[in-house]
Amino acid sequence: MLTRRDPARAALDSAARGFSLIEVLVSMFIVSMGILALAGLLQSASRYGKMSELRSTATLLANDIADHIRSNPGGATGNFYNVTNAFPATAAYDSRKTPGDQCTAACDPDELAYVDLAIWSARALATLPSGTPFIQYNAAGGGGTQNGTVDVWLAWQDPNTTADSSTERPTGECPAGLKVDTDKSVRCVYLQVGL
What we know:
Elements: H1 7-15, H2 21-71, H3 73-77, H4 109-127, E1 132-138, E2 149-157, E3 186-194
Antiparallel strand pairs: 1-2, 2-3
Helix pairs in contact: 2-4
């Protein structure tokens, strides 16, 4: 016995079949790729946010010592602010002289410079990972009335980079005296102070 198939019911049956397994797997793959991309984006945003925070802290510290140097030009021209240690700093001060936390009575330029450096370098070491100062006085050239300039670098170890990463730090960002050419995870901020 032959049964007659209703065309309206056949159309309804084919529409009710739903999605095939391949279509579901493809859509799951596309969604999971999107989620992975968002996770990578979140990780990069977190990394660059931390780098920005450290750079801002270093810039504020460099500006702070620049203000101290400008207020004590005799200490700068006498090379009392010079700190030329290699990276990383192992102590808060370079131990040329152990200053107290304040000057006695009236400070001469060298005492004031030592106290400024002791307090400032301790803050740099406490707020930046391996925070290392590099400060150097440059005498005025050409016999002008200008007192010269002071170059201030502040270096730190970026915790989000690896030491062998060749794309992290541009060449010349840090001074040669810090001896960080092989360690690309070290970042530097530079500021020149006119006296």
